[in-house]
Amino acid sequence: MKKKPTRLSLAELQDHKGAGSSAEIDEGAPPTLRDLTETLTFSPGDGRIWLNDQRMVLWRSSTYGGLRRELISSLGQEQARSLLTRVGYTAGSRDAELVLQMWPGSDPANVFHAGPRMHKLEGIVRPETISFEFDIPRGDFYADFIWHDSSEDDEHISAFGIGTEPACWMQIGYASGYASAFMGKLIIYREVACRSTGAEACRIIGRPADQWDSPELDQHYFTPDHSAQRVRRSIVPAISDISRPRTSSMPSKGQAQELIGISSSFSAARHLIERVAPTHATVLFTGPSGAGKELFAQTLHAISPRANAPFIAINCAAIPDTLIESELFGVDQGAYTGAVASRAGRFERAKGGTLFLDEIASMSLVAQGKLLRALQERVIERVGGQKLIAVDVRIVAATNVDLRNEVAAGRFREDLFFRLNVFPIGLPPLKERRDDIPLLMEAFLRRYAEIHEREIPGFTPRAVQALLQYNFPGNVRELQNLVERGVIMAAHDEPIDVHHMFRGGEILNPQTLGLGAGGRLTAASEPPPAEDNVSRAAKTPPAKADGRDAARYRKVLIAARYNVAQAARDMGITRAQMAYRLKHLGIG
User: Fold this and answer.
1) Number of other residues whose CB lies within 10 A of the CB of residue 140
2) β-strands 388-390, 379-381: how paired?
3) Could you tell me which of 90, 107, 278, 472 has the fewest CB atoms within 10 Å of its CB?
4) How far apart are CA 480 and CA 295, in angstroms?
5) Which residue blocks in 142-196 are alpha helix, DSSP H?
6) Is pLDDT larger for residue 4 or for residue 360?
């Protein structure tokens, strides 16, 4: 029976955490502030900032202050507070999920403490830990923090002065969202002191919702006001479901194939196929090789009225010109030497369904003429046959070249082009839809970890950075290959690193900036070249390490005075890798 890979859900990660307290924080254990800082990269070339695989935005505190004032003015203070609290809650939940996925085996206290560190790294507030303790199996939680230099307070005081109500609304939402995602139950923080009310600093206390008196007073701010939503809908048309970001699944031969993306270009293409799917119009997909044209065509078929009929694909570039007619239209018995039986072509096999013609531009002019007649007349004639056969198929074609240029060069029939170009849909290269890369990485990792029966917890931060910056000349197909290669090359229960994937001659040209000493932006460290793979792989112990490996790791650990983080730095690997190898070698 196939063994499931160790790819934990958020709930499973919570179950693995157990209990912890502020007294157990190990400043040298991951995730340290330095570890978190290394996940933050700036990519001026394509105008993106990344926190690991999440896109970030750098904006002025005063800009947020202006937005805050407009919300209060437009919605009123209660509605504005509720909205900002919910936004903060979502941000906190996402940061908790990021930390839990990246450091699943780290000490529970350090993993929880990454939340305040993230808040500090993002420039929101400078937290000071008074105490915290939690026990996830029992559902117990208590936390006490002081917040210094709250940016939200600065903007509120600047606009409204000192008042009677605490004003760190988004920050309270963030703290509640982070703790709730970490604990797997609703945790509510209350601001018991706030600079906006005249206090020297802000102070917050967090408990489970059921341990607060009158928790409904706080939960009110986590719930949207539906009357306000009704007013808004009367002014602004509702957003169509087809325009929402999504991950869709599409059955193909009994196995679900995912169409994954959230980028604007992906969403535009998805919107177009949903518009055209209910019709019988011919569709022409254009875009570079590896961009996913066949998968989009399969999805188009799956959401169309023809979904229960066959989806038949043919790669026109793979069929010799002498055989393309028989492949498309079929053969009657005795049509030529060796034709001992009649055979249906792709048009007949796709009856009532969809015929996908991939790389249509590779067809010869003669074959193009025969295809044009079939499209015009909606009838075909088998090779060697004398009977006209009516066909009911939807034609979906795809090409990775500009057919207008091919027409101008005399290599493609103009009349056939206009027959195919009824509803064109362009698919962009992967480098123009970078927001989709993290989702695709995750999906491919799950798929290949299961196929190859490997236990891979994820990607290292620099592997994520390398993939986010790579140009992907092979597009989605190349990303798929890189992730599969990484799953195969990575050691058991160890995250995929750069050298696991980029070992086939790929050219890495990172143009990113990271936070260096003193908080200044510096050129991010470049991943090792492919030639370094052998030397780096030598650092990974084999499945059955010999005594020399154990002695080498023990020597480094002793030299670091049993500081695992320092020993990892001395070895040039991450602390998580070092801890795994020490455990693997039986070194306490």
Assistant:
1) 14
2) antiparallel
3) 278
4) 14
5) 151-160, 169-183
6) 360
The alpha carbon torsion through 552, 554, 559, 560 (nearest 10 deg) reads 120
**Token pair for 288:** 């570079």
Of the listed ranges 44-58, 375-389, 431-445, 569-583, the one predicted with least confidence? 569-583
**479, 443 in Cβ contact below 8 A?**
no
The residue among 493, 586, 500, 587 whose CA lies nearest residue 536 is 500
Residue 299 identity:
T
What token pair was written down for 131? Answer: 């105490």
Strand partners, 403: none
DSSP labels, 437-485: HHHHHHHHHHHHHHHTT-----B-HHHHHHHHH---TTHHHHHHHHHHH
What pLDDT does 2 receive?
42
Averaged pLDDT score across all residues of the chain: 82
Are 163 and 196 contacting, i.e. CB atoms less than 8 angstroms apart? Answer: yes
- What are the helix and strand counts (H, E) for the chain? 24, 21
The highest-confidence range among 36-45, 51-60, 437-446, by mean pLDDT, is: 437-446
**Cα–Cα distance, 314 to 347 (Å, whole number):** 10
Spatial distance between the Cα atoms of 80 and 167, rounded to a whole number of angstroms = 11
Rounded (5°) CA angle 48-52-56: 40
Question: In degrees rounded to 5, what are phi and psi of residue 252?
Answer: -145, 110
Question: pLDDT tens digits, residue range 186-239?
Answer: 999 999 999 999 999 999 999 999 999 999 989 888 877 544 443 333 333 333
The token pair at 309 is 């009929």
Beta strand 311-315 pairing with 354-358: parallel
Positive/negative CA dihedral, 409, 414, 419, 422: positive
And the tokens for 191?
């601001």
In tens, the pLDDT along 512-536 reads: 777 776 677 777 654 444 444 433 4
Rounded to whole angstroms, the Cα distance separating 355 from 28 reads: 60
For CA atoms 291, 292, 294, 298, the dihedral sign is: negative
Residue 59 Ramachandran class (φ > 0 left, ψ -120 to 50 alpha, else beta)? beta
Number of alpha carbons in the 13 Å side-chain half-sphere of residue 87 = 12
The pTM score is 0.66
In which element (H, E) is residue 315 found?
A: strand 311-315
